[in-house]
Amino acid sequence: MNGWQKRARQLLLNPHGRAALKEFGIDVAIAKPGAKPEDKPIVVVLCPTYRAPEPKMGAALLRMFEYTRKRDNAIVYEGPPVSGSVVHWSRNWLITEHLKSGKPWTHVLFIDDDIVIEPDTLERLLAHKKDIVAGLCTRRNDPPIPNMRFFEKETGASRQIWEWPEGKLIEVDAVGTGLMLISKNALEQVAQVYFDCLWEQTFYGFSGEKLDKLKKTRLEKFDKEKACYWFRFLPTPVGDIEMGEDVTFCQLAKIYCGISIYVDTAIQPGHLGTLRRSWKEKFNLSARPKYEYHLAHWSDIQDHLPRLYAAARGNCLEIGVRSGVSTSALLAGIEEHGGHLSSVDINDCPVFEGHPQWSFRRGDSVGDAGIRQLLAQEYEVLFVDGDHSYEGALSDLKSFGPRAKRIFVHDTDASDYPGVRKAVDEFVKQTGRKVTYYPGSHGMAEIR
Question: What's the pLDDT score for residue 55?
Fold first, then answer.
């Protein structure tokens, strides 16, 4: 061992020496005797930022580093300091600069500069042993909606996931990269999609000399500069809108590489901002998420939900709640346009309990004296989906209809309930009002 080797050994084995090296961007972890570096994951933490991470984020990240090193179940270090204003450029640039460093790694942990994590976050993500796994992050808006997506089979477009099991590892089609652990294997496979121009072949039909030239250019660029576009803004398969860089990355990994995407719903990091409520409080109260969920999932009234949403404003009355599908459309419309929704059902249906623009009364709209108190009010919209007999539907229309400017009646085409349409026809005959029948989802009548 020569003099330089001895000095290097002394520097590396001394904690103060390693601390001094860290000031110059060299982070060293000493393996235990007999342990091989490949025995445990080696994670590089990459943080895309415009100026600098939020102080609270940085403090939380430091606690995660300390926890992970004490547990000694992974080697973890920070990646190169890179800043930029275009998010997908920053993510790609961070990976490129890391590859240039030549440091060993098995995983990349992407974390945004305003995400606050728990000390054991990395340990929990690694424990799943998945190529791509993320925490349940939210978009920084009000309400702060979790950024998990599924792909529509018909169009390939990504849609919001509104319901999920608490505290579970779930498979999704796409998720935001605010907190995402990605294996080296996954990044290498997505890079190969880029080098082989698979998306360009599928979407633009590239072939022949043009395709070969593009492949060669990309490979030469990577060999020279380690430059690659793992993250890209690309159109949906039908080309109508552009997907974010995180959704595009997940789609390329899932469709072209066959890599599954996972979210640990028990890992819920904070997202720094000025929101008045936690995402759970605001998400559970808002009707909009459930309305959008029901728009995308079948129900016996699905086709008519946009019509209820557009009409709902001012003072509205709903007769018949059941699981709250129609309630979500009416209440989401009121959230948008202003007003209050009163709902009535013979069963207890606390679907939006605590919502400031919703009240519920349990009872029979046909014979309950307490419900009859609602007769004293005027309504912009009345929605009738209660008693489906001829007598019951006509009673609701005659009792509440004269006080409503617009009336919607569901199940006018339902073969099991012929009395509903008969009641509508009789009501408009007696009152002289006009009716329009809409097909689909068991039929809907609109009376003006």
Answer: 85
